[in-house]
Amino acid sequence: MRRTPTEKPDTPEILDQTHVALRRMWHNEQITEDIYHKNLVSLAARWILLGRIEDANAMVCELSPDYVAHSMPYQMQVDPDFRTVANSVSASLSAFPLDADEEDVELALLMLEKPKAQA
């Protein structure tokens, strides 16, 4: 997600709307899962610029283990700009680790579960 200088500055509302739009595009199969996850990393960087580490962390928590292990390293190899963004997100989140209590862990686990269709 590259932005041009003429665009409005980021706000929490814009970033939330961007996240919703990306998720919708992924669910409608307009973008692949790997592209969705790559954009989540970019969104995390934008949250960090707003000083919203918890929101950036939430974006990173959505990344699938398969993406982190396989697709992300490839994307970082072929896209130097993305490599810079991903490394800066990692460094920023490492510099400001969040305290997680048991309730945070339970919520994260609930978010990872896929909803089951009910008849």
- The poorly predicted ranges are none
Give the tally of β-strands. 0
Give the topology string: H per helix, E per strand: HHHHHH
Derived structural class: mainly alpha
**Sheet with the most strands, sense and barrel status:** none
Figure out the total of helices.
6
- Cα separation of the termini: 38 Å
> Helix content range of the residues, please?
55-70%
The total number of structural domains is 1
Shape: globular
Could you tell me the radius of gyration in angstroms?
15 Å
How much strand content do the residues show? Answer: under 5%
Mean pLDDT: 84
Explain what this protein looks like in three dimensions.
By secondary structure, this protein is an all-alpha fold. The protein contains six helices and no strands. It has helices at residues 12-27, 33-49, 53-61, 65-78, 80-95, 102-112. The N and C termini lie far apart (38 Å).
Task: Provide tags for this entry.
119 residues; mainly alpha; 70% helix
